[in-house]
Design brief:
This protein has 16 helices and 13 strands. It is an alpha/beta fold and about 450 residues long. Strand 9, helix 15 and strand 10 form a beta-alpha-beta unit. The mean pLDDT is about 100. The structure holds ligand JJW.
Length: about 450
């Protein structure tokens, strides 16, 4: 039995997002977001589920925080719902919305847990979508104003700030693939949205510095590790496009102020261009304090003519898969973060999300024996240890998620929580993985046994 120890200042946390857990969508002056609209269109979300009630964390946050305390995490990553602060996106500030997050933040601090706040985790005010949403440059300034209100209100209480969660999902998944709100299928639109989100990120970082807000600010990109299936030139190029679409398209502007040329060229051939205005790229590449990486999966890609993912198809080679169909690929976590470090330099890294979806059952003993999730975490924690041992400045890890919650287009059918949600009673039941994570945090180490 080997013991792999983590540095004492390594930050263990969990993550959630406003629309996925809060419910109370019409309470205390909250305005509608694009996810209220989208989830209420029949056929958009599995089972026609929506976030109207979700985990009811709007009312039950004290229970959630008690769970976090029991778990022993140092930090809790959650998001602020823009439409609670500015119901119309612009205009009047809704004090009741600020008051709500003030209560949450105070309760966290009281419990000895640091808040980590994501400003944009997908709930764009519908009023802004009605004027074009992220495709309209006016949304950039509306976002910076929203951020400034939140910064000023919580300055000194919140130390870690994340501007955007998973800009790939906000842009391509929502506007090209069409699976997420607002549900468009238009490459030009997706590229425009991605660009405007990144400009909004850069402008927000600038404003954060100008205002002298305490703490640190960064952004979160969702990266995947795809390798070419074979060494054929076609496979290499197809896979480079596929991975570049997720990874370099967002990482290169963030750190280098430029888009990857090979993809700019590819998109141009498809009739789409980035609407870059003078100064945009410098704005996007504002120096940040850390990068957040969400890592779930990866795999192998090969060339397939006219495949929807830019002529790259994923090859099935017998990976174990989670209940949402994603490959279990712990080595990909190591490779992704090693690549981030080698390519973009000595930026502190947080894994702002990682976790596994399994079809959990509450058994007659009143427990949830999610051995598969424990195995997933354990395998990924080994990779964290390898990364730290390799000198990658990995500072922390947030498990997705504290609770089972509204998994976007998958509704409530997909569970990622350390805590099981009984959606009928809203009762919260810690799963076995909760106690596993609690044990790792308390020990500051994982145990690894060689298989005989
Ligand atoms: C990609 C589907 C074609 C969330 C995807 C679907 C079709 C190329 C989990 N992360 O709930 C990515 N999540 O809110 C944020 N991350 O493609 C948090 N990424 O693709 C979690 C879904 C996702 C996805 C889902």
């Amino acid at each position: 039995m080997a013991r792999l120890e983590f540095p004492p200042d390594f930050v263990w946390g969990t993550a959630t997002a406003s629309y996925q857990i809060e419910g109370a969508v019409t309470e205390d002056g909250r305005g509608p977001s694009i996810w209220d609209t989208f989830s209420h269109i029949p056929g958009k979300v599995k089972g026609n589920d929506n976030g109207d009630v979700a985990c009811d964390s709007y009312h039950r946050y004290p229970e959630d925080i008690a769970l976090l305390k029991k778990l022993g995490v140092k930090v809790y990553r959650f998001s602020i719902a823009w439409p609670r602060i500015l119901p119309q996106g612009t205009g009047e500030v809704n004090q009741a919305g600020l008051d709500y997050y003030n209560r949450v933040i105070d309760a966290l601090l009281e419990a000895g847990i640091e808040p980590c706040v994501t400003l944009y985790h997908w709930d764009l005010p519908q009023a802004l979508q009605d004027r074009g949403g992220w495709a309209n440059r006016e949304t950039i300034d509306a976002f910076v104003r929203y951020a400034e209100i939140v910064f000023r209100t919580f300055n000194g209480k919140v130390r870690q700030w994340i501007t955007f969660n998973e800009t790939w999902c906000v842009s391509f998944l929502s506007n090209f693939v069409g699976d997420h709100a607002p549900g468009n299928k238009d490459l030009q639109l997706a590229i425009t949205v991605a660009h405007h989100c990144m400009v909004a990120h850069g402008k927000t970082v600038k404003r954060f510095r100008e205002l002298g807000i305490q703490g640190e600010i960064g952004t979160t990109h969702n990266l995947y590790w795809y390798e070419p299936y074979s060494s054929s030139q076609e496979d290499i190029e197809a896979c480079r496009r596929y991975r570049g679409w997720y990874n370099e398209w967002f990482m290169d502007p963030t750190f280098r102020g430029e888009y990857p040329a090979f993809l700019v060229e590819w998109f141009r051939k498809k009739g789409a261009e980035v609407p870059i205005q003078p100064g945009d790229m410098e704005t996007i590449a504002q120096k940040i304090d850390f990068i957040g990486i969400n890592y779930y999966s990866g795999g192998f890609g090969r060339y397939k003519q006219d495949h929807k993912n830019f002529d790259c198809e994923e090859v099935q080679i017998g990976f174990d898969k989670t209940h949402i169909g994603w490959n279990v690929y712990p080595d990909g976590l190591y490779k992704t973060l090693k690549w981030v470090h080698d390519t973009y330099g000595d930026i502190p890294i947080y894994i702002t999300e990682n976790g596994a979806c399994y079809d959990d059952v509450l058994t007659s003993d009143g427990k949830v024996h999610d051995a598969d999730r424990i195995a997933y975490f354990h395998k990924h924690f080994i990779q964290l240890h390898r990364l730290i041992a390799s000198g990658v400045p990995l500072r922390g890890y947030f498990a997705w998620s504290l609770l089972d919650n509204f998994e976007w287009a998958e509704g409530y059918s997909k569970r990622f929580g350390l805590v099981y949600m009984n959606y009928e009673t809203l009762e919260r039941i810690p799963k076995d993985s909760f106690y596993f994570f609690q044990h790792v945090i308390a020990n500051g180490a994982i145990e690894v046994e060689d298989k005989k």
